[in-house]
Amino acid sequence: MDKQTAQKSVKIATGAVVCVESEIRGDVTIGPRTVVHPKARIIAEAGPIVIGEGNLIEEQALIINGFPENISPDSEFEPKTMTIGINNVFEVGCTSHALKIGDNNVIESKAEVGRNVILTSGCIIGAFCRVNTCEVIPENTVLYGSGCMRRVQTERPQPQTLQLDFLMKILPNYHHLKKTVKPGHNPS
């Protein structure tokens, strides 16, 4: 797939702020009020990625819908859509392969979430924690510390509304932005 074809399959909703220096490949839909920092990478190889409203994707974060380890890209494979809900934060240098992420989650710096993990809502994956099991992480679960211990918090993390507002105002002053493309609209 050449660069122009890859760019055409990227749909950016009105109100989203996506820096040109970010790398977005494949069939990716980015919802309104989502901020994608420079050097963030969103890669849809094994199926589309749909990102909801109000998400924050920071520098060097990697969101990838890749092929499972035992399947090669040229074999017969049913594409699976990666779905990311609303008000999630992907902090600097984190990696997410999870096909289903709910709302109000935080994946902290250098944390890694595997392909077979379903992140419900209100979860925090602490810095440097890796979760690569085949499981559904219950709502409001916090993974933390060097042993990736778990606990349940009483409230879910607050949406980063003020930070999103600030970034939506400041980033366009210092970075070029990718053009918004409405889903179903083909620029000629």
Q: Explain this structure to me?
A:
- The chain has 2 helices and 21 strands.
- The protein is mainly β.
- It has a single domain, classed as 3 Solenoid (UDP N-Acetylglucosamine Acyltransferase, domain 1), CATH 2.160.10.10.
- Strands 2-5-8-11-14-17-20-21 form an 8-stranded mixed β-sheet, with helices on one face. It has a 7-stranded parallel β-sheet with strand order 1-4-7-10-13-16-19.
- β20 (141-144) and β21 form a beta hairpin.
- It is found in: Chromosome, Centromere, Kinetochore; Cytoplasm, Cytoskeleton.
- Keywords: Cytoplasm, Cytoskeleton, Kinetochore.
Name a few traits of the molecule.
mainly beta, 8-stranded mixed β-sheet, 7-stranded parallel β-sheet, 11% helix, 30% strand, globular, Trimer_LpxA-like_sf, DCTN6, dynein complex binding, kinetochore, cytoskeleton
Q: Would you spell out the secondary-structure blueprint of this structure?
A:
Blueprint: H1 3-8, E1 10-12, E2 17-18, E3 23-25, E4 28-30, E5 35-36, E6 41-44, E7 49-51, E8 56-57, E9 62-65, E10 82-84, E11 89-90, E12 95-96, E13 100-101, E14 106-107, E15 112-113, E16 117-119, E17 124-125, E18 130-131, E19 135-137, E20 141-144, E21 149-152, H2 161-174
Parallel strand pairs: 1-4, 2-5, 3-6, 4-7, 5-8, 6-9, 7-10, 8-11, 9-12, 10-13, 11-14, 12-15, 13-16, 14-17, 15-18, 16-19, 17-20
Antiparallel strand pairs: 20-21
